[in-house]
UniProtKB/TrEMBL annotation:
The lineage of its organism: Archaea, Methanobacteriati, Methanobacteriota, Stenosarchaea group, Halobacteria. Residues 57-83 are annotated as: Disordered. It comes from Halorubrum trueperi. Belongs to the universal stress protein A family. Residues 10-148 form the UspA domain. This is Universal stress protein. PANTHER family: STRESS RESPONSE PROTEIN NHAX, UNIVERSAL STRESS PROTEIN UP12.
Length: 152
């Protein structure tokens, strides 16, 4: 199976691992010339706060998730890394349940691979709090590459 579309899913918590995520997305996309759809998913609370921090009026066209995603630091850094590597990409934004939005975005763009970040958690932490990455791995319509947070 040839990889034509890679969904690189990021959220606000991925600010510390942009280099790792970019490196992995590039490694998956480069061999086949795949397009990377860089999708920043915001929770409703995060989205409102980030929109306010960016000084975007709620009713303006610039307040749409795609526009806010384009302006977010994490997304800009990843976009720059993809451009520097010569990887075709686009940027999208989504607001809602993180795992659900990633799975829906992967379906909508007919992704051949999803790249998602996460961190190591204890079994109790997973049971109590759940895991966005785990839910994506179980529900995505295609294979998922998990990029684990490295120890600082």
């Amino acid at each position: 199976m040839s990889i034509e579309t890679v969904l690189l899913a990021v959220g606000t918590e991925d600010e510390e691992r942009t280099e790792q995520l970019a490196r992995e997305a590039i490694a998956v996309a480069e061999p086949t010339g795949a397009e990377v759809v860089l999708t920043h998913v915001f929770t409703s609370e995060d989205f409102a706060g980030i929109r306010d921090r960016l000084g975007v009026d709620e009713g303006s066209e610039q307040s749409a998730p795609d526009a806010v995603a384009h302006r977010h630091t994490t997304t800009r850094e990843l976009s720059r890394a993809l451009s520097d590597a010569g990887v075709d990409h686009s940027v999208r934004g989504a607001v809602g349940d993180l795992a659900d939005e990633v799975v829906e975005a992967a379906s909508n763009v007919d992704a051949d691979r999803v790249v998602v970040g996460g961190r190591r958690r204890s079994p109790t932490g997973k049971a109590v709090f759940g895991s966005v990455a785990q839910e994506v791995m179980l529900s995505a319509p295609c294979p998922v590459t998990f990029v684990r947070e490295t120890a600082s």
